[in-house]
Write a structure and sequence with these properties.
mainly alpha; 104 residues; single chain; rod-shaped
């Protein structure tokens, strides 16, 4: 029995051999589909990571711009308050002189 090599018995139906072959091909096809899906997922994750980094950089730039604009807005508000105060004083002075339209 030790000298006997493995062999296929004639009693094994051809349908069984065909079924095993088809199942083997189906497993290979399924594995290749899974591999493709994994590759697509990895690619999408990479794109999302790059997009996230770009968005983070854009947000940092916007925060810098806003921090630069805020003092300028504050200075504009102070200037507007000075102009309003000047106009109110001028209006009060014109009303005190009795001159209509600002005293011109």
């Amino acid at each position: 029995m030790a000298d006997a090599a493995w062999h296929l018995d004639k009693k094994v139906p051809i349908a069984l051999i065909a079924t095993i072959a088809v199942q083997s091909l189906a497993i290979v096809w399924w594995a290749s589909t899974i591999t493709g899906d994994v590759k697509q997922t990895v690619d999408r994750v990479g794109r999302l990571e790059r997009n996230e980094e770009t968005a983070r950089n854009n947000q940092n730039e916007l925060e810098k711009s806003v921090s630069q604009i805020q003092p300028q807005i504050a200075e504009l508000l102070r200037s507007m308050q000075r102009v309003e105060g000047w106009l109110q004083r001028r209006e009060s002075a014109a009303q005190g002189n009795g001159a209509p339209g600002g005293g011109r």
